[in-house]
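Supplementary Text 2. Reproducibility record for the structural model of the 301-residue chain.

All settings were left at their defaults, and a single model was retained for analysis rather than an ensemble. We include the record here because the model underlies the residue-level annotations in Supplementary Table 4.
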Amino acid sequence: MIELRRLRAFVTVVEEGNITRAAARLHIQQPPLTRLLQGLEEELGVKLLQRLPRGVRTTEAGSVLFNEARTLLTRAENLSEAVRRAARGEQGHLAIGFTSSAALHPFVPNLLRRYRDILPGITTLLEEAGSGELMEALVDERLDVAFVRSPVSGIPGLLIEPVLLEPMLIALPVGHRLAIDSSEKVPLAELTHEPLILYRRPAGQGLYDAILAACHRAGFSPRIVQEAPRLPATLNLVGAGLGLSIVPASMRRLGGDGIVFRSIAEEAQLSAPLYLALRENRQSPLITRLRQLVAETVNSL
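Retained model, structure tokens:
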């Protein structure tokens, strides 16, 4: 294994064409530099330099080594910097998961944009799935972090950190009696006899349970007529006139023909939280930097 210090000494001598000048550039005495060169020649078993009256020049073998050594030294310097960037959380790979509703909140695209701009050395893998699937991927170490709607607890080795809250809205088909006046907030009890469309509990456990709990506080059990596999699918069913739904406010960004959104009265105490889920044993500089950016992005909203 050739020592990098010998290669660096050799390259410097060739670039300077003179051992004395090379020694001054390397900040060492001439005799130690000469010994480094001799050691390199002995190690390779070939003559690398020809001594001239006013300097040195490479042999054929020395020319080959010079070109290869410069490339190797450049890569070694880049490797050192890459390792330092990784230690600072500025380089590496991150697998990020998110639910479909989380992706629609301005926070998530803003965070990813800031992440790309501030840390261009990070490559990211993005995966969209339900909260349950994302948790499984975290446990199996297929994901590093995930943005979920459910404060899933009791999973060994996982941390769940609150990120933000957003209001929930009622999604109604155009022409519905509650869609006519959008100036007033709707008491949740107004939905007592209405057909309700929700997303399946395994896909959106946190929001599903929160909606049911809010309805029970309002004095009724919701009449669920349809369950959809994902939040966006519920809006399609609402637009088709099959019922109403209660969705995070960010779902309004999807629009949709034939849909009207109404705000819910505050006494319902109904909101859509967003959480950051990660593994306890994955506290790398990369994850630490992401958590810092999460806080900064939330504060900028």
